[in-house]
Amino acid sequence: MPREHPLHRPRHGRRQLVALICALAFFSAPLSSWLFGARPEQLENRPLAEFPSVAQGFGFFTGLNGWATDHLPFRKAAVQGVSGISRGVFGEQAPLAGGSHSSPVGAGQVDAKPPIDESVFPPVIEGRDGWLYLGHDVSYRCVPSRSIDEVVAGLKAWRKAVEASGRKFQLVIAPDKSTVYPEHLPENYPGEDCSVAAREEFWRKVPKATGAVDLRAPLRQAAERNGHPIYHDIDTHWTHEGGATMVYQLAERLSPGISRTWKMTPSRQYPHSADIPDLLGQDRTVPIQAYALAPDGGADNTQFKPSDFHEPLHLKSSPKPGMITNPVRMVGDSFSQFASPYLAATYTDIAITHPGNVATNPEAAANFLAEGDVVTFELSERFVAGGRYPLLTPQAAAQVGRVLAAHPVR
């Protein structure tokens, strides 16, 4: 419009140009830095955000922020700097978690979820005696995506779908560290009341209603036998002893008495980058004690093949006494990473895929699960209790169940 028109508004051309340049610089920084040799680092315990697809519609634009943030160069150094200033100058923890897209102990995050207000729920809970807890242990229980009843209905639908095809179904829930070791939590912390109430309701209802293996007592018993905690003090995961405890429990339910011949002995030690300090901008490691496991009491039969299961991990071994020979297909997350060497030692044919794969590509996941006579789900308490696995819907189970029914086990 001409300047003299009463509705004329200046275009602020220079300001618009500066804003456009800044936006282009932000979103192109990951690509330009990659060309000059910089590579993004995985900061949270989850895969880096993928570049959004144009098929997502407006979600393409909303997804750009998470992708650009994850792939910014020198992000870890910036987080460490902010953390140092916050603690050194102000004497408090910096709010450094990755926002609502952050998803530690990775699970498929493809359906809508209530955002976590990190001004209320911190990403890290600093406990007693130097223990650190993942904030999502609390926030996911206090801000759930699904009710406990909806979670139970989803898990029961999976059991029904798998067993209707003639397969055996096993469900095991890896307890949160805050569930197994609540004594190291601080005296008071945000969300304490709602998270404790939700935790008690979860363990009172879910194992009984779904047939899930309750590992809480076996884990504490294993810790007492070994003389040290079965979870790392600054990592959210259990130790290799925890992974092996799960393997023993699952095998005994498939074939009672099969573990009588198993012989498990300490093997190598190695450092492992702890996941919770990363959220505080710190690089810290925990010592890992690995084990040899001989199912027949003879030679070690473990296989150490690191994997996050986003690409399914296949583990095969020649049959030996004490091994389970039925083909097993498993859905498991990062807790299963500490169990996979011992699964490889005791199963002749087992393969593991990530829970996110079931949500993002249910047809491929269905075909994967159809390869097994036994289907095992290992799911993390925080994601189940918070209803944050997309596969926790009867519809997801029914979709996969149709494929399983078309390929029954006789």
Automatic annotation (TrEMBL):
- Domain AlgX/AlgJ SGNH hydrolase-like, by residue range, is 124-270
Return the InterPro entries for the record: ALGX/ALGJ_SGNH-like (IPR031811)
* Main location class: periplasm
Provide the GO biological process annotations.
alginic acid biosynthetic process
Which compartments does it reside in?
Periplasm
GO MF assignments:
hydrolase activity; transferase activity
**Which Pfam families does this one have?**
ALGX
Which UniProt keywords are present, listed alphabetically? Alginate biosynthesis, Hydrolase, Periplasm, Signal, Transferase
Instruction: Specify the pathway.
Output: Glycan biosynthesis; alginate biosynthesis
**What GO cellular-component annotations does this UniProt entry give?**
periplasmic space
Q: What is this protein called?
A: Acetyltransferase AlgX (SGNH hydrolase-like protein)
Instruction: Look up and give the organism this protein is from.
Output: Saccharopolyspora dendranthemae
Q: What is the lineage of its organism?
A: Bacteria, Bacillati, Actinomycetota, Actinomycetes, Pseudonocardiales
